[in-house]
Write a structure and sequence with these properties.
By secondary structure, the chain is of the alpha/beta class. The chain has helices at residues 10-13, 17-23, 37-50, 82-85, 94-101, 116-124, 139-151, and strands spanning 2-3, 26-29, 55-58, 76-81, 131-134, 156-160.
Length: 171
């Protein structure tokens, strides 16, 4: 099974995560290059405590952008996987990590431009800051995301979503 050191403790709190941890022959601690060493060590301790027989492997998941020069110093809109930010409890994802790694300038706040379910998401999850959550890929959700992105005045849109938004959203 795979655990995320950006979410220390989630491997113990959620189903099926804990069940998977208990049954795993091998546990991969992913994203070690962007997580704090303390978080990686805590996840390692949790694995050892609950499944001392599991082989522990550490792995990196590097972020990339097509053209880093388009990001450096620019005003960026970061679009992230919505569920990661909402019920996943994160305040950032791969898009924000890319913004940091490739020296983006200002993060442009999409909240004033949010429409429909995206606006509702901001109201329900106040921990979301200057990141735009992609909340789904149905027809209405894509249109709301597209309208929100196109209303934001920015130089670059960075996406950290599990799909290539450029294929379904016209920016």
């Amino acid at each position: 099974t795979i655990v995320d050191p950006h979410r220390v403790g989630h491997e113990l709190l959620y189903y099926p995560g804990m069940a998977n941890l208990l049954m795993a022959d091998m546990v991969l601690i992913n994203k070690i290059q962007t997580a704090s060493p303390d978080n990686v060590n805590q996840v390692r301790k949790n694995i050892s405590l609950y499944n001392p027989r599991a082989l522990i492997i550490e792995a990196a998941s590097p972020v990339s952008v097509e053209n880093p020069d388009l990001v450096k110093g620019k005003r960026v809109l970061v679009v992230e996987d919505g569920p990661t930010l909402t019920h996943g409890g994160m305040t950032f994802g791969a898009g924000e990590l890319a913004a940091q790694e490739f020296s983006a300038g200002e993060r442009v706040d999409p909240k004033p431009h949010a429409v429909g379910s995206i606006k509702t998401t901001y109201e329900k999850f106040p921990h979301l800051t200057t990141i735009l959550p992609a909340m789904g890929y149905g027809k209405v959700q894509i249109k709301e995301l597209e309208d929100t992105i196109n209303a934001v005045d920015c130089d670059v849109v960075l996406t950290g979503t599990p799909i290539d938004l450029g294929r379904i959203v016209k920016v």
